[in-house]
Amino acid sequence: MAEQPACIDTDWQPDILGDGYRRREIELGADPDREGAVAAVLVRREVRADEVARGAVLYVHGFSDYFFQTGLADAFARRGLPFYALDLRKSGRALRPGQTAHYVSDLALCDVELERALEIVAEAHPGLPVTLVAHSTGGLIVPLWLDRRRAAGRVAPVAGLVLNSPWFDLQGKPVQRGAATQALRLLARALPNRALKLPPSVYGETLHTSGTGEWDFDLRLKPLAGFPVTVGWLNAVRRGHARLHRGLDVGVPSLVLRSDRTHFSTRYSELSDRADTVLDVAQIARWAGCLGGETTVVPIEGARHDVFLSLAEPREQAYAALGGWLDRHGLPPVAAGD
């Protein structure tokens, strides 16, 4: 009898991160925002022979971002949590020619790929808890999605939520935020794709090897100056903020990690490497209670906007806070005999 060929999972293809990572496209059909066919891309870190899965992680990036943080994936894998990351529609690996980077007119449109990605992770690890991890704008998109899932009576297999510097409000004074929001509502109807003129950011410079950072990420997928912010997208974000401020119930315990300080500046200084140069951390602290249920907020001294891309000392503090929270919540659960 002829030997049968080994089974090949053709849904997963080699990823740009190289050995140990594979990607799977999730086709989403026609774009409701009329920019052609859209897709999301799910990336997985391959489980190694000596690793035993006790749960899983699904990670979601922020604006002008994509998944490249292999150190974060390794940290979860060491705890028995296989790691998956989702590049949302029109973001990172999923951005297609002719599309506006990261553009959605409603953050709820991302529910489709989030559900599909969660289904894929759950099928790969049946019966195991899934911890969701989200950064910046992803830290707004994911709680809104979870609140809708919980309202529909669906929580499992999600067991925990980790938010890394989530975007909970628009920067600036209350009067400025109110005026800007009203203007966005009007402009979004007529000029949704118009790019806003915003001050330059030094954040990319603090991360990339061409500046003061340690990471050689793809500048086509994450430009140093970021992608343009469009009127329609920011209007969608503001509607998401308003929903968050009315109070959510994500249905699971939450951990919110943030820097202990904000430093807005258009010029680089040493403080740029030891503060959040993107968001107002006081706003994160203020609105964290709107997630519902048990919420733990941990400020990390000297952290950058992405606390896991901070300088070595605050980065280790962030991992320690994450590890302690996972331990206290049994994520992953302790196996018999441990």
TrEMBL record:
UniProt GO MF annotations: hydrolase activity
InterPro entries, per the entry: AB_hydrolase_fold, Hydrolase_4, MAG_DAG_Lipase
Keyword Hydrolase among record annotations: yes
Keywords: Hydrolase
Gene3D superfamilies: alpha/beta hydrolase
Leader sequence segment: none
Serine aminopeptidase S33 domain: residues covered: 53-260
Protein name as annotated: Alpha/beta hydrolase
The organism of origin for this protein: Streptacidiphilus cavernicola
